[in-house]
Design goal:
Blueprint: H1 5-25, E1 66-70, H2 75-87, E2 94-101, H3 108-121, E3 127-131, H4 140-159, E4 163-165, H5 170-183, H6 187-190, E5 196-197, E6 212-213, H7 221-230, H8 247-263, H9 267-295, E7 303-304, H10 305-309, H11 313-326, H12 336-347, E8 355-357, E9 361-366, E10 369-374
Parallel strand pairs: 1-2, 1-4, 2-3, 4-6
Antiparallel strand pairs: 5-6, 7-10, 8-9, 9-10
Amino acid sequence: MGPHPAVAAIRLAVRRALHDVLTDLTDRPAPPPAAPRVGRPSRTVAIHGVPGGPAPHDPLPDTAPLVLVACSGGADSMALASALAFEAPKLGIRAGGITVDHGLQDGSDLRAAEVVARMTALCLDPVESVAVRVGRDGGPEAAARDARYAALDEAAHRLGAVAVLLGHTRDDQAETVLLGLARGSGIRSLSGMAEVSGGPGTPGARGRRHRYRRPFLQVDRQTARKACMVQSLAVWDDPHNTDPAYTRSRLRHEGLPALEKALGKGVVEALARTAQLSRDDADALDAWAAEAEHGVRDEDGRLECAKLYVLPPAVRRRVLRRAVVAAGSPAGSLFARHIEEVDRLITGWRGQGAINLPGRVEAQRQGGRLVIRQG
């Protein structure tokens, strides 16, 4: 008798992601090896009391590729951890886990220790808890996210991991699309979260390491929770996820249910489908802009306003954004309104002065050329 349908669904999603990781490994050099794990033999214990849990495997050598799961202890990430523990050894992949203690709630260190114990019981190795200090830039949700990814980046680099799996589900994707729509941020924001994204560096850069993978973007939240229940996996429900002080929490518990009541079931699936279609369009436009940029520069590499003017607006604004980021403006601080102001130097030239941009970058029109530099 096979596993429960929910368990089968999460395992299939992870198996596909791991196959993609192995394919990616054949196309690029291996990462630098991690430091030797002195006194830490590979774990071969089975999960006790977990139906369908991974059976003991022969220890894998430290030279085998390592994939980590980012696990908060919630249902989504615990389901992901269990599927990784089951599938990775069969493909010759070492499976480990990282939990990040944000320190935002009383007893967070104890909960992080519990998550470490649960991942260890799943036969994941290495397993670590990393404590971070959350700043204030961008609001509490953005600051926590930045601190979390910084910790995951550091751990993945230090341990020599080839990928980090994240437990975002189709429901998370739908919420992200709605948040982007509310901000009016354009098609890239509507594309939501990428199934595969890189580590530190410029998004979309060719040849970069594709460190983060989200196997569950086609899996709904209820399936992940059901998989935990039938495997008797303990999960922790973060009270922040139901706190109306947080925008995403209000959207999850008030906004999306209201949309489904008004429009009928299937809103989440439709939003996730919109994300994929938007991502395909945005990727195509980005590629067009990268190619068009070479044709709008003069022999000295300066942007020519006349040539920029005849480009389609969506392509022209991408060219401008690329140029502003290349000049030193932080991509995360650069919003649509900034690019619109620069664009008016091309399409609505009335002799206006320089445009000040994040990162002490300024853009101005001089002699039919667009000059973008750090001041």
